[in-house]
Every structure is written in C-alpha cells, then in structure tokens.
Amino acid sequence: MFLFLTIIQAIVAAALVGVILMQRSEGGGLGIGGSPTGMLSARGAADFLTRSTRWLAVLFVALSIALAAVAASSGGADTLETTLDRDVAPIERSDPLGGGPLGGAPAPAPAQPATAPASDPLAQ
Q1: Cα(104)–Cα(99) distance, rounded to whole angstroms?
Q2: Is the pTM of this model over 0.70?
C-alpha cells in the first residue's frame, strides 16, 4: 500500500510540475473570472491549467497526509533495528611495529629520584 501511494504521489508531483510550468508567467494564471469563448482559446486553456493545478495540489496534499498516516501506523518501536551489537567481544589490536598487543598493561613509569639534588634552587 505504501509503495503504491508513493508511486501515485510521484506521478501527481510530476504532473503538478508540468502543469505549473505550462502556465503563463505574466500573472494570467490566477483564474479570476471566466471566459465565454470556450476551451480552445488562450483564456480557456489558462482556466483549465488553473483548475488542474488546484486539483493536483489538493491531491498532492491529501496523498502526503495519507502517506504519513500509513507510515505512522506501519512502523513502530519494535521494528527499529540497532546497528551496534554490544554482545560481541572486542578484538585485540596489535602494535603495527611488532611490539605486542595494544591496550594491554601500561608501560612502567620511569623511576624518579626520591630527593632532589642540592644544586637545584627550586628544591628548597
């Protein structure tokens, strides 16, 4: 159902774009008043394009609301898939220089002398 409505929505959107692009750009596309000369005149064509634009826009909005309702009713929290699988044990990384595994025991800190030398002026 969702795919069918999406295809219809795409067709309506393409038709709406085409009808809008066919209209005159000098402000004649508002459809104010009627034309007694019939459908084959310039004014009759403008009235037809204006009416078709109106109905295609109404159909587009209605399909958008229907698609939102179908998407909200079909999807739920139980269909959410997680991409982080936390049950997997971490891999052991190795040092590219051949020094053994990384992330193991830290290297011992260098030994510090217990007292400062007497020649150090800050030690006093």
Answers
A1: 11
A2: no
